[in-house]
Structure formats: C-alpha cells, structure tokens
Amino acid sequence: MRIVIAGIIGGLVIFIWSAIAHTALPIGEAGFKVPAQQEAVLDALSQSTAGEGVYMYPSMEMEQYRDETASAAFEQRSNGKPYAFVIYQPGGNPVNQSMTPALVKQVVTDIFSALVAAWILALGAWSFRRRVLVAGALGLFAWLAISLPQWNWYMFPMSLTLAGLIEEVIGWLLAGAAMAWWLRRGDKETLHAPINEQRLTH
Description:
The protein has helices at residues 2-23, 38-48, 62-65, 68-78, 100-121, 128-154, 158-201, and strands at residues 53-57, 84-88. By secondary structure, it is mainly alpha-helical.
C-alpha cells in the first residue's frame, strides 16, 4: 500500500510540475512556432495524406528504401529541400475544444509512471538522497531513450529537446523527493515494528 500511496503522491507532483512548466515557464513553448497560412496548409495535407497517422515530407515507401536506385534518386531529390514531420488527425484535436479529458488522462498516466518509479525506489532500504537521485536518473533515462532519438532521426528542434531534458529531470527529482519522503516513513515504521512487538510480549 505504501508504494501505491507513494506513486499517487509522485504522480500528482509530476502533474503539477508539468502544469507549471507549460504555463508559467517557457519550457512548454520551446521549439514551437505558429505557422502561417494554416488553412491552405491543412487543405493541402488533406489531399496528401491517407487518414490519421505520422507523415514525413519528403519520404517514400519503405520498400523503395531497400532499392539502391530508388534510394539514391530520393537522396538526390531531397538534398537541400525542406523537411516536415507531421502528425495528422483529420478529425481535429479535441484539446482545442476542451482540455479536461486530456488533463484527466495526463494525471492518470503520470500516476502510473510514478507507481513504476515508486516500486523501483522501494526495492531497497535506500537513503532519502539516493532515492531522489534514482528518481532523477529515471527521468534522465526517459529523456535519453525517447527525446534524443526523436532529435536524431526526426529532426526535433534542439530547443524542444533540451526543454524536455529540463522538464523530465527536474520533475522526477521533485517527485522522487516526495516519494522518498513517504517511503522513508514506511521504512521507519517497519524498523520499529519488531521493537514494539517485543514490548507487547513483555
């Protein structure tokens, strides 16, 4: 039960920190720009895409990449040309109408993430400091495993990537401190339990 409570506490801390990072700090805006001629671009995308999905411009079918001739021709055509990574949803983004469902899903996913972290932090009778550092390392691991490949392969802006590093590491250090505080309470209760039992037997 103490792990579940620690996970809930950590998830709420992550959620609050993310809200602050995206509303009161410039972290949430890093790398994002408002496009011009949005209606024209969206009309063009509706003709270029085949339903919801992730699209890269320029790109080609995966089978063509295995063809040396087609691959060489694509490399020549795309050299020096603009590149775009597009997440296309023909039905629009429901967040533009109401953020409530997305916020509910976000806090739930944050709690699930923190439950995993709390389980890891509870594996050993570690000190408060070590648990905080382990939680921060988990945030760094998530950034290295997800954000860096997106920067490397899909050209995500460096400003967005570095903002993700700040958000993840600081967020999980804060959540780690909250979870470590709660878990340490449980460690003390477990430590004193045998002593109390001995007193009762006498």
